[in-house]
Structures are given as C-alpha cells and as structure tokens.
Hints:
Layout: H1 27-38, H2 43-57, E1 68-73, E2 78-83, H3 115-126, H4 136-144, E3 146-147, H5 150-160, H6 169-173, E4 185-186, H7 189-201, H8 204-208, H9 210-221, H10 228-232, E5 237-239, E6 242-246, E7 249-253, H11 260-270, H12 283-303, H13 314-317, H14 320-327
Antiparallel strand pairs: 1-2, 2-5, 3-4, 6-7
Helix pairs in contact: 1-2, 2-3, 2-4, 4-7, 11-12, 11-14
Amino acid sequence: MNCDWRLPYPSRRQPILARNAVATSQPLAVQAGISMLQRGGNAVDAALAAAIALTVVEPCSNGIGSDLFAIVWDGRELIGLNGSGRAPAAVTPQRYAGLEEIPPRGWEAVTIPGAVSAWAALSQRFGTLPFADLFVPAIRYARDGYAVSPIVAEKWAAAEKVLPHDLGFAEHFLPQGRTPGAGEIWRCPAMARTLETIAATHGNAFYRGELARTMVAHAQASGALHTLADFAEHTVDWVAPLGIDYAGSTVHEIPPNGQGIAALMALGILRAFDLQSLPPDSVASQHLQIEAMKLAFADAYRYVSDPRTMDRAPSALLDPEYLASRARQIDPKHAQDFGPGDPPRVGTVYL
C-alpha cells in the first residue's frame, strides 16, 4: 500500500506503525499499558493499567477519586460504561440556597468517586489479566518515585494555586512545601498503599472497607454529608452509546449525565452546512464549528443531568428536525450568544 506521508502541519510528529499502540498524555502511563500487552493482556487490560498509572504520574489532572466513562467494542457491539458517582443521599437543594453554583473546591464538590468501581467492572467483564496485575506499574511509580515530566510540572504548579491545601493536597502533593519541578523525583508511599489495597480487594475496600471509612471520616470532619451507605450503594451503569451519522461516519458518545451528547448535537447542527467545501483551518470553518458547539452546550447546560431528572430525552436533543432548527440560528458572518432551545418532549422509561 502506498501512503502519502506529507503532513498538513509543521510538526516533528510521525505516525506510529505497529500491531498494537498505547497513547496517553504521559510516557510512563504508556509504558504501563504496553507492559500489559507484553504480559499477554488485551486492549482493556492495557487501557486500565494506563489509566491507573495516570493517577500517579499526572495527579494534577486526575486521581484515584475520579470518574470514568468508557466505550468498548467487544467484537460484536459497542458497549458503554458510565462510571460516574452520585451526590450524597442527604444533599438537598436547600444546602446550596443563595449560592450561584455548587462550591467548585473541597468536599462540597465531591460526588462518590466512580473510577475504581469502573476499573473493576471493565476488568471483570473484558479483561484477561488478574486485576492486581494492572496496578503493578502504578504502585512502583508511587513507591519508588519517577521523574516529573515538564508539562505535568507546569500543570502541577497551576493546580497549587486553585486546590485547597488544608484537605490533604499539601500533605501529599507538595513535598518540601512546593510542587515538584521538571525532572525532580516524586514519591507518594501513601498512594502506593492505597493502590495496593484497591488491587488486593478488587476495589471493595474503596466502597465498603477501610478506604471508604477513612474517606467518610475525613468528609464528615470537614462538614460534608457523605456516609458509608453512599459509598456502599454506589454502582456503575452499563449503557448503550448514542450515535449520530456525519460525513459518512458514525460518531458515538456516552449518553447523559455526561456532556458527550453536546458533540453529537454539534455534528447534527453542522449537517446543515457544507463544511467540507471550506478549508479546515479557515475562519469560516472554525466559526461554524464554534457556533455549533455554543448552541449544543446551551442545550446541554439546560437539559443534561442525571437521566432520572431529565425532562427531555436524549433522543429529543438529537432529533434531526430540532437540530436543523438550531442550525438556522447560526449567522455565518457574526458570533452570537445563544440560549437553550425547546427540543420536543418524547416519552421514555428507565429501569
């Protein structure tokens, strides 16, 4: 097969030609994924090991207490996993009365973390390696240390300015009272012990064991409403991905409560325009894409929530006639500040 290797942009990047490939934002996480393939694991094993390693080698951008969304092709169909957590059961609207938003920092911003449960669910359903094997690289990085990469060092320094230091962040992530610099070795034995406990219990300790008790005690000491029951009752949700056809391809996203539906809505809006006739980086092309995303997010911010509380079904937000009506609001010559639209009301049930 003859290939044209001329790249459209000035860059030193080149395609990777291999039977298997792992791509993340941090080389050590890539190595974690590749090591699972070398052990005889499959793509899910590699993805999980890379994700677990990222909590250690890029802790300023994600963590063990994160959420997780996944779309998996099992050889026959696409399967979605929503590994996001719910708010504590005791939370009421009155708790936030008078506030313009839920506080973005501290325990008030914390839902029950779903990533650990999703790691376990994906490994059990699709993985081939023992669950504990997936944690070996991450535990080694945390216990023995690793050289902080330059971009991560920059993000780490930025996180120091916005994250509350009195909730454990400074204790674990500001060694010597500051963020680590590029090339500096950073170790976190406490994180290694946490990962070891998760690995040994298949994640159960995080929701029903010692780790859950420790988190709940810290939350309640900080005035939060999290309880052991909130952690014990947490579940992941297997879902059918949403899809939309655009320019000969079908794009899939996880359905709400996530924001992925906004990307599908924007593509549906852009079907009203001949985007392929415009140069990819032209002002006209970028203007249409930006306006489409603005329209999509206006609706997402208004209608997307926990599926049990949505008053418009995802199918209504992706209705072709509705998206065409939204497209007609775009002025090719002027940027606008859009409000939410009025998608059709259609019925559905949730089990």
